Amino acid sequence: xxxxxxxxxxxxxxxxxxxxxxxxxxxxxxxxxxxxxxxxxxxxxxxxxxxxxxxxxxxxxxxxxxxxxxxxxxxxxxxxxxxxxxxx
Length: 88
Known about the structure:
The protein is of the alpha+beta class and 88 residues long. It contains 3 helices and 5 strands. A 5-stranded mixed sheet has the order 2-1-5-3-4. Strand 3 and strand 4 form a beta hairpin. Helix 1 (10-16) runs antiparallel to helix 3 (43-51). The model has no long low-confidence stretch (mean pLDDT 94).
């Protein structure tokens, strides 16, 4: 399991109520599932994540299955809503 930082931008930041938080996960899918669990009191958060694109350690995830994207120790996940350059 790796630990790192998830950074939220624009609408994702507003929906999460924070600019960043830690992840403890092996894959991007696990990190996002953990984030959804932490923010269940904010229903807009899960909806915003559906519209976002992601950078893992600076590399675009694109259409890859999030379960196949491995996270690194000390790495970063950038959560980009469409307004911040994310997917439409």
